[in-house]
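Notes, Module 5: Reading structure tokens.

Key idea: the token line is not a picture. It is a compressed description, and you learn to read it the same way you learned to read a sequence, by spotting repeated patterns. We will look at two proteins. The first is printed below with its tokens.
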Amino acid sequence: MENTIMSVVGCLMLCAWVFPQEQPRELRGGGHLLCETAGQFFSEGLVGDILRACQGKDWKSVSQLSKNLGNASKTNAKDYCAKEKLAKQQATSGTRLEYDGRGDEETMRADTFTFDGGHLVRIDMVYVASSANIEGYRPKSFAELFAGLREAYGPPSKSYSEPVLNAYGVKYDAHRAVWMGSQDVISIIEQPGEGGRTEIIAETLAEYNRAAQAPKTANPLQ
């Protein structure tokens, strides 16, 4: 269980808050802190290294570093720099922006970061479920990820299941759980079945409410 906790909390962790639950939490996912400024996001880690290489016109380093971010295509280094520079400008100016992160190849995780008002307001981590045993990969199941979150944050504020259909029309019961905080929300969402996935979302309370008010697609099973 300790390894499971460290695996989950290493991607989404409660940073040393040991006060009562009503105190603000610090949530970190994909190497970044929820609510950090866009300027901080684009100056740290691999993204910061790439932008500094772009500024120095070190195109060879840009090409090498961009591959570590999952950019396997033969995109011209100058074009890639222009794209990254634009993303930084939009995010730091307050424009709402979704940015694809590095993720984690070993656990088959993809990361997406959402900026609004110059801050990181949502961290979305998607773990692809795989029934195949592939050497070098350690996909995470919903049960494993949920157990880690429960161990780190205690029982969820809400836990339920709802019927869903996969791409082939097969019915499954998909599990959901939510941990409500005073200023933020953690959610885990299961998409079961072949080719399924588990999604973990850390977001500000305002972002959670924004998504809750958005029009939803009707569930054909309800």
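Here is the second protein, with the sequence above and the tokens below, as before.
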Amino acid sequence: MNTPPDPFEFLKNLWGPMGLPLSGLSGAATAMTEVDRRIAELKSVETWLNINLNVLRMTIQGLEMQKAGLAAMQSAAAAMGETASATTPQQPPAGEDPAKK
């Protein structure tokens, strides 16, 4: 079977004697472009992940602040409940006359 002629063979022969291998040059440029494209993609993914990480950290901090606020309100409510029960006079059980004591 005959293989089809390489369309770049003429250019390879033309540039070859000048010391500029065309196949290596174009392959390196293509490879460099591909590497640059991949680097740009990965940097954009890194930026997106950093933004999401910062949002996650802020959400966690917000929830921790809410938790601390709720704990403070609960402890204040418990302290007010203890204060109210300590200052309220004791009521005698129902049916008992307080004057008999």
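Summary for the second protein:
- The CA atoms of residues 17 and 50 lie 51 Å apart.
- The radius of gyration is 41 Å.
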